[in-house]
Amino acid sequence: MSDKGIPRVRPTLRVVEQDLGMTLPTVNLPIHQLDHPVVAHAQRVPQIDAAGGAARILARVDRVWLKVKTGRHRGGVTTVSPREAVDVTGPVHAPEWLEGWWLGFVGLRKEDSATDVYAVALQRSTVPRLDGGPGVDTTWMLPTPRDARRAVAEFAAHQERAMRDQVLATIVASATSGLPVQPSMGIMR
């Protein structure tokens, strides 16, 4: 969740590096704040879904993927449950960092083309079933333990910044008042 209680949609590291061809920023920039139109638009999907207006990508039958459309870019957003997070990371790798909304694939819309983002995603997700027919498995689009480690590092960077800001504010309050000050408590009397 974000600070204001609105869910954020994190792009997977695979999306950032492979689908978008971007270099990962330092952990000081939360990955859901990347400067890319499809990442920015993906942030609205949870609210659109809550209002009943999100469009489903129908070709995905193993889980619900919701459409993200902006310009020529298209993508898919899904949620990862606590159980799925543990399945991906195991209990020791902080699975709670994988729970929530994720942008799992991005590409360019090229209708009726083999390189259309939806055609490529479906082709990559098609797997054989036991009965010999085709099945769909989109687990390759889901976050990995590497995504969880990135989320933990971003949180640590945020906490470090918050601690530094609090210490500086306390020093300034004490220096300007001439009285002892406790963090977040104000002037001691």
Task: Explain the overall architecture.
The chain has 189 residues and is of the alpha+beta class. It has one domain. It has helices at 13-19, 37-42, 45-50, 82-89, 117-125, 145-177, and strands at residues 9-11, 66-70, 73-80, 100-108, 126-128, 134-136, 181-182, 186-187. The strands form three sheets. A four-stranded mixed beta sheet has the order 1-4-3-2. A hairpin with a 2-residue loop joins strand 2 (66-70) and strand 3 (73-80).
Keywords:
two-stranded antiparallel sheet; 6 helices; 189 residues; alpha+beta; 4-stranded mixed β-sheet
In short:
The protein is of the alpha+beta class and 189 residues long. The protein contains six helices and eight strands. The chain has one domain (9-143).
Task: Present the secondary structure layout.
Layout lengths: L8 E3 L1 H7 L17 H6 L2 H6 L15 E5 L2 E8 L1 H8 L10 E9 L8 H9 E3 L5 E3 L8 H33 L3 E2 L3 E2 L2
Parallel strand pairs: 1-4
Antiparallel strand pairs: 2-3, 3-4, 5-6, 7-8
Largest sheet: 4 strands, mixed
Strand content: 15-25%
Instruction: Count structural domains.
Output: 1
**Can you count the helices?**
6
- The N- to C-terminal Cα distance equals 37 Å
Number of strands: 8
Gyration radius from CA atoms, angstroms = 21 Å
Largest beta sheet: what is the strand line-up?
Answer: 1-4-3-2
Low-confidence stretches: none
Helicity level: 25-40%
What's the shape?
A: elongated
The H/E string reads EHHHEEHEHEEHEE
| Overall SS class | alpha+beta
Mean pLDDT: 84
